[in-house]
């Protein structure tokens, strides 16, 4: 079955990727008297002309007992969320989730304190009231992909506005941070009425894990993080997270640092861990002294807790004369475990922040070139001498061995010992004396 084309917000015809089996299921549902809608992020992304393979399907006018036999013809079904009315369908090379329209009522503390009621007779408009923002409250009925937009999501998407759907928004405080990361990812600003409702909510009921996931989406998914920062400030989250500070007393400058980070992150050869470290270092670039406190509030990721404060400390203590001293660069690499992240963060600094004594503003380029020449980008220098090598020379483990390794390594960092052979020759002379 051929996938129907839709018109994007840019007025371009777009044929989204839809599995033929899904279109076949939708036909069977309709033949049985039901209706199937693609909902949420898939609809939003399709209207933006972006490919999306995250298919969430809501089924209306059909009971669970009627739907299960239809789905069973296509693959293995599993009722993964009985309380939420979710059926998982596993097929060869494809898995899909089918749900039923539902309402949610807040009855307790935290994100689990909801009672969910499924009702296949709800209208799409009634069911969409539980969603967060209007741009996520749209649906497309299968198989024709007919748009259903009861709350003006397409107009808000065109206007780059994030607007909450209704009063139920206030029942899940995570939506505050979702607003921040959506602002970044989709180039949006928060509607004034949405800002006001966000300011009335508290994040105190959210777990560390949920906080961390939203910060990661803000900083690591493609987008413009400065718009996320704008939403963060509009909601006054800087009062809840005072450890996030303006850069050089300027929030605008911090936003520019974040946008530069996003650009460099996507074109630099970084591991996933390094991308995360770089992103959080940029967010916390306004102050090294509070970085660890903030990170401990939102994550248990040990590499972040270790690396980010070290890099930020080096960034704020950096003397431009370091590029003229190979020994100083080697010692700096030992201190923070390699210079790549520091070099990238320096590139994000505003014009003139690292101006050299001669008036040149090329410190970032010079630092990167020197670090690359010395092989310090990926890792710190390792001592040529080891305990094993010294034992082969007859040195027993103990204080003398440690002193020899330390002295040799200092000479190595100074550039006076440049190979294992030179280190061994120096060690033999030191032992004989």
Number of strands: 13
Q: Figure out the total of helices.
A: 19
Distance between the termini: 86 Å
> Number of domains in the coordinates?
3
Largest sheet: 7 strands, mixed
Helix/strand/pairing class, anyone? alpha+beta
CATH class of the largest domain: Alpha Beta
| Percent helix range | 40-55%
- Summed over residues and divided by their number, the pLDDT gives a mean of 92
Radius of gyration: 28 Å
- Strand content is 5-15%
- In what order do the strands lie side by side in the largest sheet? 5-6-7-4-3-10-11
CATH architect. name of the largest domain: 2-Layer Sandwich
Looking at CATH, which topology of the largest domain would you report?
A: Beta Polymerase, domain 2
Q: What spatial form do the alpha-carbon principal axes imply?
A: elongated
Please give the structural blueprint.
Elements: E1 6-7, E2 13-14, H1 20-31, E3 35-39, H2 41-47, E4 56-60, H3 64-72, E5 76-81, E6 86-91, E7 94-99, E8 102-106, E9 114-118, H4 124-128, E10 139-142, E11 146-148, H5 153-158, E12 161-162, H6 174-186, E13 189-190, H7 192-199, H8 208-220, H9 225-234, H10 251-267, H11 272-283, H12 291-298, H13 302-317, H14 326-336, H15 340-348, H16 363-373, H17 387-392, H18 399-414, H19 420-432
Parallel strand pairs: 4-7, 12-13
Antiparallel strand pairs: 1-2, 3-4, 3-10, 5-6, 6-7, 8-9, 10-11
Helix pairs in contact: 6-8, 6-9, 9-10, 10-11, 10-15, 11-13, 11-15, 12-13, 13-15, 15-16
């Amino acid at each position: 079955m051929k996938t129907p084309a839709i018109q994007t917000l840019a007025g371009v015809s777009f044929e989204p990727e839809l599995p033929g089996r899904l279109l076949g299921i939708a036909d069977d549902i309709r033949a049985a008297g039901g209706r199937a809608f693609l909902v949420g992020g898939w609809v939003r992304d399709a209207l933006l002309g972006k490919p999306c393979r995250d298919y969430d399907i809501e089924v209306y006018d059909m009971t669970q007992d009627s739907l299960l036999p239809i789905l069973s013809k296509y693959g293995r079904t599993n009722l993964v969320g009985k309380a939420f009315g979710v059926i998982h369908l596993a097929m060869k090379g494809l898995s899909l989730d089918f749900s039923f329209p539902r309402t949610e009522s807040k009855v307790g503390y935290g994100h689990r304190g909801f009672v969910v009621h499924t009702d296949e007779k709800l209208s799409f408009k009634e069911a969409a009231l539980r969603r967060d923002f209007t741009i996520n409250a749209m649906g497309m009925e299968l198989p024709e992909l007919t748009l259903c937009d009861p709350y003006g999501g397409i107009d808000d998407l065109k206007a780059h506005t994030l607007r909450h759907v209704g009063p139920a928004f206030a029942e899940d405080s995570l939506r505050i941070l979702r607003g921040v990361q959506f602002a970044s990812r989709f180039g949006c600003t928060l509607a004034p009425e949405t800002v006001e409702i966000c300011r009335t909510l508290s994040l105190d009921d959210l777990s560390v894990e949920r906080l961390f996931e939203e910060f990661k989406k803000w900083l690591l998914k493609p987008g413009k993080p400065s718009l996320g920062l704008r939403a963060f400030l509009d909601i006054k989250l800087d009062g809840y997270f005072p450890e996030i500070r303006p850069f050089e007393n300027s929030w605008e400058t911090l936003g520019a640092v974040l946008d530069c980070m996003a650009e460099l992150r996507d074109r630099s050869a970084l591991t996933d861990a390094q991308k995360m470290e770089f992103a959080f270092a940029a967010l916390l670039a306004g102050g090294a002294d509070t970085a660890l406190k903030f990170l401990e509030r939102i994550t248990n990721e040990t590499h972040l807790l270790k690396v980010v404060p070290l890099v930020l400390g080096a960034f704020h203590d950096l003397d431009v004369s370091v590029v003229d001293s190979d020994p100083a660069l080697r010692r700096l690499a030992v201190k923070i475990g390699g210079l790549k992240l520091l070099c990238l963060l320096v590139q994000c600094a505003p014009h003139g922040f690292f101006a050299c004594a001669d008036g040149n503003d090329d410190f970032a380029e010079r630092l990167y070139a020197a670090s690359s020449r010395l092989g310090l980008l990926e890792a710190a220098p390792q001592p040529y001498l080891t305990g094993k090598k010294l034992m082969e020379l007859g040195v027993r483990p103990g204080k003398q061995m440690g002193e020899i390794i330390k002295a040799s390594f200092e000479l190595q960092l100074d550039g006076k010992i440049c190979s294992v052979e030179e280190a061994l020759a120096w060690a033999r002379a030191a032992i004989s004396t």
